[in-house]
């Protein structure tokens, strides 16, 4: 929690003995403030702050946004270098085996330094890597660190102010051409709003830089002040992007300094309930009426003639 600082009323002026000594920063030595990072995976922009990564989505919520609008505050004068022993895998979160922020010597935090100096390092030599297309390159990739702020939120307090953005090797010539083009019209690169998009003609992430408009006077004053801000020096010279939030510390993701979608997709309609299985109905069989027993026709049987009397029989004989 931030401590509210104040001096008692009537505190008095500093002794003349100490005048001219203000500004020493020993108390803060070794304690770096956290800054945000603008990164990308494939062609998806994201912001990262205190270990929390957030993808930047389109305003309509239909997938990732294709560009970001920033002001480039300052650029590092030297190229940075990054080396992955097994090659970089898109989306990997692990720190490189070796890296350099000044392009001269490996960073002190690098765990697997390849050589005492970058100039003599075999991984920095041309031909130390062969691309999938068979072209020669360097196993240790060049990049340039730049400090940027969101165009619509120059102070960017939620993410500590100026943010780090690394320009990959494939886009370094485009960055230089952009700066040269602005200079030809007498515009310093930090005097304009810049849109950075991905080149749609390339399968890999390659940047396209576009000037949007000149900064107004209010914006210009803020940017000039930031160029001398020690936070910008920290962004350009330190390697916070390879440090994660402390273990077991829950850090809430700050609100994105870039305009995010407020689009909320309508919930999918619930599937209609399946019709209940009908119980098997045994068809009602109406028993056929049993035929009434028909009495057999009475046949008239001729009665046998009654036996003749003895006299009649005697008469027939005579």
Description of the molecule:
13% of the residues lie in helices and 21% in strands. The termini are far apart. The chain is built from four helices and twelve strands. The protein has 318 residues and is α+β, with helices and mostly antiparallel strands. The longest helix has 13 residues, at 172-184. The strands form two sheets. Strands 1, 2, 3, 4, 5, 6, 9, 10, 11 and 12 form a ten-stranded mixed beta sheet that branches. A two-stranded antiparallel ribbon has the order 7-8. The protein has a domain at 33-242. The chain has helices at residues 172-184, 217-227, 230-237, 310-317; strands at 37-41, 44-49, 52-55, 67-75, 80-83, 98-100, 129-130, 136-137, 140-150, 163-168, 192-198, 207-214.
How does the SSE layout of this entry go?
Elements: E1 37-41, E2 44-49, E3 52-55, E4 67-75, E5 80-83, E6 98-100, E7 129-130, E8 136-137, E9 140-150, E10 163-168, H1 172-184, E11 192-198, E12 207-214, H2 217-227, H3 230-237, H4 310-317
Parallel strand pairs: 1-10
Antiparallel strand pairs: 1-2, 2-3, 4-9, 4-11, 5-6, 5-9, 7-8, 9-10, 11-12
Give a quick rundown of the structure:
This protein has helices at residues 172-184, 217-227, 230-237, 310-317, and strands at residues 37-41, 44-49, 52-55, 67-75, 80-83, 98-100, 129-130, 136-137, 140-150, 163-168, 192-198, 207-214. It has 318 residues and is α+β, with helices and mostly antiparallel strands.
């Amino acid at each position: 929690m931030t401590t509210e600082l104040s001096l008692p009323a009537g505190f008095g002026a500093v002794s003349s003995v100490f005048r001219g000594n203000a500004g020493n920063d020993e108390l803060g030595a070794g304690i770096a403030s956290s800054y945000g990072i603008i990164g990308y995976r494939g062609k998806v922009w994201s912001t990262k702050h205190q270990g929390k990564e957030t993808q930047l989505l389109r305003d309509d919520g239909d997938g990732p946004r294709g560009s970001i609008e920033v002001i480039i505050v300052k650029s590092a004068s030297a190229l940075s270098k990054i080396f992955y022993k097994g090659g970089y895998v898109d989306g990997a979160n692990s720190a490189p085996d070796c890296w350099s922020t000044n392009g001269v010597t490996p960073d002190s935090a690098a765990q697997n330094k390849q050589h005492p100096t970058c100039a003599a390092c075999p991984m920095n030599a041309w031909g130390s890597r062969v691309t999938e297309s068979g072209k020669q390159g360097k196993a240790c990739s060049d990049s340039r660190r730049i400090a940027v702020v969101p165009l619509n939120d120059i102070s960017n307090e939620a993410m500590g102010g100026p943010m780090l953005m690394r320009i990959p090797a494939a886009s370094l010539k485009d960055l230089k051409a952009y700066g040269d083009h602005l200079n030809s019209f007498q515009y310093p690169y930090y005097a304009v709003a810049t849109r950075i998009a991905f080149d749609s003609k390339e399968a890999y992430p390659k940047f396209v830089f576009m000037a949007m408009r000149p900064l107004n006077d209010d914006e210009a004053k803020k940017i000039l002040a930031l160029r001398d801000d020690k936070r910008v020096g920290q962004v350009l010279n330190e390697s916070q992007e390879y440090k994660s939030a402390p273990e077991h510390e829950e850090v809430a993701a700050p609100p994105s300094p870039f305009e995010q979608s407020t689009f909320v997709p309508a919930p999918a309609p619930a599937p209609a309930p399946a019709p209940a299985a009908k119980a098997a109905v045994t068809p009602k069989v109406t028993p056929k009426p049993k035929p009434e027993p028909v009495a057999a026709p009475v046949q008239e049987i001729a009665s046998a003639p009654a036996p003749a009397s003895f006299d009649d029989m005697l008469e027939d004989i005579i």
